[in-house]
Amino acid sequence: LEYQEKERQRIARDLHDDSLQNLAYLIHRIELSSLFIDEDPTKAKLELAAVNQKLKSVIQEIRNIIFNLRPMTFDDLGLKETLILLIERLTYSSQMHIESRIDEIYSENSIVLLSIYRIVEECLQNAIKHSGGSRITLLLENIDNKEYLIQIEDNGHSFDYNNVLSSEDGHFGLSILKERVEFLSGKIEIDCKAGRGTRIKIEIPCI
Fold first, then answer.
1. Backbone angles phi, psi at 189, to 5 degrees
2. Contact call for residues 138 and 202 (beta carbons, < 8 A)
3. pLDDT tens figures, 87-105
4. CB within 8 Å of 29: residues ≥ 6 apart
5. Backbone dihedral angles phi then psi of residue 161, each to the nearest 5 degrees
6. What is the helix (H) or strand (E) element at residue 143, kind and residue range?
7. Is this model's pTM higher than 0.85 or not?
8. What strands, in cross-sheet order, belong to the sheet with 135-143?
9. DSSP state string for 149-206
């Protein structure tokens, strides 16, 4: 329940801080354009063109939020293809180079597959937001149908994992990541070395 509440707070924050504020701003721009229609039609058209472009951006933001709630491709295409689409989306939005090698992962429990997707997503987003690097490598491997290996490396700044988790804010992203792995009875290792980036290794037993 605590985890679900944190997720709801994050979604509400995303909607309030980005989409809703942008929509309120667009209303103001439309009202401004209406004042120019009679006096300066050309300026009004330019304003409306800018509003149109920004509105497309807001629509994409909302689509991303919906995708984050549950990727619509997940049920149709499976975990591997959904991760490939995620990587394409993150690469486009961040301009960060992401190399990947992804095995086919099968499980009768869709919650396990969705949890693996969320773990990979969290690791990639953390690297994009906090590493300051230019390259990420992702490995998702099925080892003899006994365990799933997830490994994510970046070439950015390192950090002290224990200090981050014990800080007052607890680094929300890393705390959630650790909880997700523990929920699947998995193990997580985070290797941070100055000037060599961060490597996250996660082992999850096949369920």
1. -125, 130
2. no
3. 998 998 888 999 999 998 8
4. 47, 50, 51, 54
5. -60, -45
6. strand 135-143
7. no
8. 97-102, 135-143, 147-154, 197-205, 187-193
9. EEEEEESS----HHHHHHSTT--HHHHHHHHHHHHTT-EEEEEEETTTEEEEEEEEE-
